[in-house]
Specification:
Largest sheet: 2 strands, antiparallel
Oligomer: single chain
Radius of gyration: 16 Å
Order of helices and strands: EEHHH
Length: about 70
């Protein structure tokens, strides 16, 4: 279980989500994306999803690169 102290939230870890998705025989993204096209095609929601995805990707890559030690 991953916890966010700041927001008082808790959610399953990536490993748990993957196991659930495999057991249900669905893609784990189905847990996060809308199930109907009407909601998903909303331009505002798409813009927010794009911004959030880019931000999360950038944060992840910064974390990965900060852990890589360059031997010169």
């Amino acid at each position: 279980m991953i916890k966010s102290v700041e927001l008082s939230l808790a959610w399953p870890s990536e490993k748990t989500l993957t196991q659930l998705a495999n057991a249900l025989e669905v893609d784990f993204l189905n847990f996060f994306l809308p199930t109907t096209d009407e909601e998903f095609l909303n331009e505002t929601l798409l813009a927010e999803l794009k911004i959030t995805t880019q931000r999360n990707y950038n944060l992840y890559m910064e974390k990965v690169f900060s852990q890589i030690q360059i031997n010169e």
